[in-house]
């Protein structure tokens, strides 16, 4: 089928990969839980855009370029780790503000501050940058996709297009599930300030872990 071999195995592998927690999916869940379905989908479409760009770059050989140039790979890796770290610091600062507001019982300034922070967040742009500043994604896509492309097929770009489209559809289903789960969580977060502050703190720590892992890999 358009030069794709063993499509059922590819579908199973994509489903497992998409289900693994990563910075993209956790950021979409975080946005949906704090700001609702609409903003959650803004973040999700940032992920889709970034992933599409990476898939196109993979198809034209950018993955091979990164693999052949350790300096270029290192630069992009440092940028990606730095951006993830910056997101983590922002989450931890927001969590600290929640803890302080809870201790002083000053809920109204907290709400105003959260609203101002949300207005400046720009979920689409942030999710797009998180996706693009991950050179390992290109290397992964390159090594993963080629396993399911028939080397004798005359139009391998169509094979990459089909594999990428299937991957994006699976990702859409998964992120939609996270978005609607996140909006249900938001009601609990609004009622329980300790839960909200704890979840934001945990997300910040996890993003720090992603940054450290990317920087040291």
Automatic annotation (TrEMBL):
What name does the UniProt record give this protein?
Answer: Leucine efflux protein LeuE
The listed locations are: Cell membrane
What family, per the record?
Answer: Belongs to the Rht family.
Q: Which domain of life is it from?
A: Bacteria
Name the predominant localization: membrane
Work out whether the entry's keyword set contains Nucleus: no
In its keyword annotation, does this UniProt entry include Transmembrane helix? yes
Record keywords, A-Z: Cell membrane, Membrane, Transmembrane, Transmembrane helix
NCBIfam families, alphabetized: PRK10958.1 (NF008201)
- The portions of this protein that span the membrane are 12-32, 44-66, 72-96, 127-148, 160-183, 195-215
Q: Which InterPro entries match?
A: LeuE-type (IPR001123)
List the Pfam families hit by this protein, alphabetically: LysE
How does the record classify its membrane topology?
Multi-pass membrane protein
Q: What gene name is listed for this protein?
A: leuE
């Amino acid at each position: 089928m358009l030069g794709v071999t063993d499509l059922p195995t590819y579908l199973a592998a994509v489903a497992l990969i998409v289900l693994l927690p990563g910075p993209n999916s956790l950021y979409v869940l975080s946005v949906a839980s704090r700001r609702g379905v609409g903003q959650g989908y803004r973040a999700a479409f940032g992920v889709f855009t970034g992933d599409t760009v990476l898939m196109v770059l993979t198809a034209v050989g950018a993955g091979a370029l990164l693999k052949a140039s350790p300096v270029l790979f290192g630069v992009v890796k440092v940028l990606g780790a730095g951006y993830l770290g910056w997101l983590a610091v922002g989450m931890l600062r927001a969590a600290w503000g929640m803890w302080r507001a809870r201790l002083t019982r000053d809920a109204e300034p907290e709400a105003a501050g959260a609203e101002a922070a949300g207005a400046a967040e720009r979920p689409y742009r942030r999710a797009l940058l998180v996706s693009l500043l991950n050179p390992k994604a290109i290397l992964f896509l390159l090594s993963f996709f080629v396993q399911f492309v028939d080397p004798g097929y005359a139009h391998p770009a169509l094979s990459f297009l089909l594999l990428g489209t299937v991957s994006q559809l699976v990702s859409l289903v998964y992120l939609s599930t996270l978005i609607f789960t996140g909006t249900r969580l938001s009601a609990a977060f609004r009622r329980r300030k300790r839960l909200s502050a704890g979840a934001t703190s945990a997300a910040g720590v996890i993003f720090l872990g992603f940054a450290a892992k990317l920087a040291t890999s």
